[in-house]
Amino acid sequence: MPKVIIDCDPGIDDALALLLALASPELDIAGITTVSGNVPADIGAGNARKVLRQAGRQDIPVYIGEMLPLGGTYVDAMDTHGRDGLGESFLPEIPGEFPEKTAVKFLEETLEKEEISILALGPMTNLARLFQKRPELIGRITRLVSMGGSFRSHGNCSPVAEYNYWCDPEAAKACYQLFAEAGKKIEMVGLDVTREIVLTPNLVSYMERLDKKTGEFIRKITGFYMDFHWEYEGIIGCVINDPLAVAYMIDSSMCSGFDSFLDVETEGICRGQTVVDSMNFWKKKPNSHVLTETDAERFMSFFMSRILNKEVEQ
Ligand code: BDR
Ligand code: CA
User: Band of the pLDDT at 310, cuts 50, 70, 90?
Assistant: First the structure.
């Protein structure tokens, strides 16, 4: 079974992604690392532990990562995810110190020992810090699946930018550049596909009917997120981006796309935009696999059957 490290910023949809990963026997989770994104990395680490408690998996270590983006200026997404990052559910904190080892150190030491995959569900700050210091470790990564960016879709925090890459564009740019130099590709699960994944109030009610404990947890953390979507986008329900990246890592047929060279803009009104050279103007070797199509219904029944532990015909 391939080992995976989940680098995330929990975050409501990160929490759902963690639940999905924890319910999936295909993934052997070596650890969870957090990064400042939706909430500061230390609050995110506390939230990761809350999800681990919910899933009965407190054996998995959580490491706190970079508090600030490479450029130094940090903008959280508490307007979307709540002051606690979990939709103002204010679930009780889990007592206990966090390991002193930083997320970057944990990633570095793990990759020195073995080949692993990485699921990146937040800004790419930890990964950029690691790859800038130890670019040779990129060769030890089996797969890097990153939720972020977009190809044709509009952005979700500027007309053209997706939050994870917008929050730390220098980090995203560095990761794609260093992957290009290493001759490897990052699998980009961006807004083109994740926008399709909408968790509705009806689905949450049905989850509660099928599995009270899990359904209740999901209701508590998603209400705030749904209100945000209704108020700002007129959507009934909430777009859950991160779980699709988990599903795609487990089963690559969940999304399809194409290989391309990709760069990230770091300045001006297009800050955070992913520039995908789909027409090969630059004649550069692809450093990304850009996902553009998915089957939302198939994903949702996969997601529900996994987190509610109910076998259904896929
Ligand atoms: C991404 O940004 C965050 O708000 C979500 O957790 C997701 O990772 C979507 O743009
Ligand atoms: Ca996230």
Answer: confident
pLDDT recorded at residue 314: 60
Q: Are 70 and 128 in contact (CB under 8 A)?
A: yes
Q: What does the DSSP assignment read for 86-112? A: STT--PPPPPSPPPSS-HHHHHHHHHH
The pick from 8, 47, 164 for probing ligand 1's pocket by mutation, whose C-beta has the most ligand atoms within 8 angstroms, reads 164
E-strand ranges in the chain read 3-8, 28-34, 62-64, 116-120, 141-147, 186-189, 198-199, 238-239, 255-264, 274-277, 288-294
- Cα of 88 vs centre of ligand 1, distance in Å, is 17
Contact 56, 131 (CB under 8 A): no
Cα of 42 vs centre of ligand 2, distance in Å, is 14
Render pLDDT for 174-207 as a digit per residue (tens, 0 to 9).
999 999 999 999 999 999 999 999 999 999 999 9
Q: How far apart are CA 48 and CA 9, in angstroms?
A: 8
Question: Could you read off the pLDDT of 206-255 as tens digits, one per residue?
Answer: 999 999 999 999 999 999 999 999 999 899 999 999 999 999 999 999 99
DSSP string, 181-246: HHT--EEEE-HHHHTT-EE-HHHHHHHHHH-HHHHHHHHHHHHHHHHHHHHHH--SSEE--HHHHH
Q: Which residue from 20, 36, 38, 79 has its CB within 8 A of the most atoms of ligand 1, so it is best to mutate?
A: 38
86: number of CA atoms within 13 Å, CB side? 24
